[in-house]
Each structure stands twice: as structure tokens, then as C-alpha cells.
Amino acid sequence: MRRARLVLAVAALAVGCASAVTEGQLALRQGRYVEAEGFFNEALAKDPGRTDALVGLGIAQYKAGQVDQAIESLEKAVPIRPLRAIRPCVLVRRCGLPYCI
Predict the structure, then answer these.
(1) I need a surface site. Which of 9, 54, 72, 74 has the fewest CB within 10 A?
(2) Which residue has the higher pLDDT, 3 or 22?
(3) Is residue 6 part of a domain?
(4) Is the residue at 101 inside a domain?
(5) What is the CATH number of the domain that holds 28?
């Protein structure tokens, strides 16, 4: 019983975190950069190691004109998952970032 509750609690956290990332990605695609930044920050508050949230946050920050913060966010993704951080590099280039992680 106790293990089942733990599994359900972890699943609920994972779903909530994924929703924030998904909402952030949608806001980013629609040009709502400040709102996207909020969603990615929400996901990162729950799981600071979410590479996709860090990359999304970096892109949203860049698009909102916060270049220094964008670089900082993108640099945080590399030590967490170096191989996974390379793939978003293509996305970053498509979004027009002059900086690639």
C-alpha cells in the first residue's frame, strides 16, 4: 500500500512537470515568450534537471531579449545531459540564437 502511494505521488509529479513543459513549448511556438518562461520555470521548480525545460527557458529568454539569461540557462543543460543538450542545438539554431550549447 505504501509503495503504491509513493508510485502514484511520483507519477503525479511527473505528469504535472510534463504539462508545464508542454505548455511552455506551446507558448514558445505561439510567440508568448514571457508566458513560456513562466511555464519552464514552473517545471524547473519541480525538477531542476529537466534539460528540455532548461533549453526551452533559454530560447524563451533569448526571444524576449534576455540574452545573458538565455546563455546561462542553456549552459546549465550541458552538464546535466551532455548528449541530449546537443540535439536541441539544432532547435536553437532554427530559433535564431547566435549561441549554441
Answers:
(1) 9
(2) 22
(3) yes
(4) no
(5) 1.25.40.10
Grid coordinates belonging to 32: 508568448
Produce one character per residue of 24-34: b if its CB has 16 or more CB atoms within 10 Å, e if not: bbebbeeebbe
Domain assignment of residue 71, yes or no: yes
Q: Residue 75 pLDDT more than 60?
A: yes
Domain count, the chain: 1
With 0.85 as the threshold, say if the pTM is over it: no
Domain range for residue 80?
2-94
* 22 or 80, greater pLDDT: 22
24-32: list long-range contacts, CB under 8 Å, 24+ apart: 24/53, 24/56, 24/57, 24/60, 25/56, 27/60, 28/56, 28/59, 28/60, 28/63, 31/63
